[in-house]
């Protein structure tokens, strides 16, 4: 039997419908048709609440679904008699799902991780699903597995509760880019997990803008006796491409790096990477400010030098010289020790 070519969802009318809704409908469609062999497509469409055209498109999609291998005898099959349809092979979809111990444990661990992730919109639903799976799996998931994210869970819960209550907060926050600690009053918007770090997104009254505050850099939190009052212009960040978004208005720095520091090009968004002399590369990237860039370069080691801008090169040189002078000037001449005597021989 020749199978009709399935059109892509984008090419179909209504192709932008939620994939989850269609998946649920397809999973329900097979047992429905198995219980009603030879049913008219018009009747089935009416029962399922879809148009005849949509039902035919769903049947076309089912026709290319099945078991791994996807050859004859693996795919769901059906027979058409005019406007009537009958499922002739269901690929086992009518059988209840049975999880192996490894599958059950993996699913439980994933749900526990999801429940602990800041920013989950419906945590209660995740916990209900987890409870049902743990109850059904029984001893399969009895292994002592504990899921903890690499964040301060107490502080995350404290902030999550404040967001849920809609209260304003006073926080003591360390800003790494400027190497300073400040006190701010914020109006929380939501909790997020990005790149393995937990963030509180909030309207900062000091900056008069939406800011992301890393939870591990919040030293203290006080819940104020006033509701959060973010202004209408407060809009959440688009974090689909990460927290840091390089832009032309940020400072551009160029570093000359050796082979051992090429990892920089994999961990930071670089605008330009060029081959230099020998094994050296010239790497250009945007930074939040030169203060952060200075500390970044000083922590990289001798295989990295600043090519531009000159202001950054001078800052790095000055701080390196100051550090060397501090090491070279002891507070007081220590008395001779056995180790010192041995070293002087």
UniProtKB/TrEMBL annotation:
Domain spans labelled WYL: 156-222
Superkingdom of origin: Bacteria
Pfam families documented for this protein: HTH_PafC, WCX, WYL
Span of domain PafC HTH: 21-134
Domain named WCX: residues: 254-324
Protein name in the entry: Helix-turn-helix transcriptional regulator
Biological source species: Micromonospora rubida
């Amino acid at each position: 039997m020749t199978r009709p070519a399935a059109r892509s969802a984008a090419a179909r009318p209504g192709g932008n419908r939620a994939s989850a809704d269609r998946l649920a409908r397809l999973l329900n469609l097979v047992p429905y048709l198995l219980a009603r062999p030879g049913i008219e497509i018009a009747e089935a469409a009416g029962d399922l609440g879809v148009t005849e055209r949509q039902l035919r498109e769903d049947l076309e999609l089912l026709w290319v679904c099945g078991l791994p291998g996807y050859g004859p005898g693996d795919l769901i099959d059906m027979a058409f008699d005019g406007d009537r349809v009958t499922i002739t092979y269901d690929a086992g979809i009518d059988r209840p799902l049975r999880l192996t111990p490894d599958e059950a444990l993996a699913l439980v661990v994933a749900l526990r991780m999801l429940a602990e992730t800041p920013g989950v919109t419906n945590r209660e639903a995740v916990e209900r699903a987890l409870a049902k799976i743990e109850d059904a799996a029984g001893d399969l998931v009895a292994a002592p597995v504990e899921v903890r994210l690499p964040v301060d869970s107490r502080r995350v819960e404290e902030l999550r509760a404040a967001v849920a209550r809609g209260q304003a907060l006073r926080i003591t926050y360390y800003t790494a880019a400027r190497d300073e600690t400040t006190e701010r009053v914020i109006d929380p918007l939501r909790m997020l997990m990005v790149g393995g770090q937990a963030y509180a997104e909030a309207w900062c009254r000091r900056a008069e803008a939406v800011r992301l505050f890393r939870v591990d850099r919040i030293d203290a939190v006080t819940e104020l006796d006033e509701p959060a009052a973010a202004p209408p212009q407060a809009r959440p960040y688009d974090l689909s491409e990460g927290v840091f978004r390089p832009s032309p208005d940020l400072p551009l720095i160029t570093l000359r790096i050796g082979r051992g520091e090429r990892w920089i090009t994999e961990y930071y968004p670089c605008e330009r990477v060029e081959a230099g002399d020998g094994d050296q590369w010239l790497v250009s990237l945007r930074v939040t400010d030169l203060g952060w860039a200075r500390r970044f370069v000083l922590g990289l080691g001798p295989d990295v030098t600043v090519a531009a801008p000159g202001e950054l090169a001078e800052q790095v040189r000055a701080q390196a010289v100051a550090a060397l002078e501090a090491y070279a000037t002891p507070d007081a001449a220590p008395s001779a020790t056995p180790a010192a005597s041995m070293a002087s021989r």
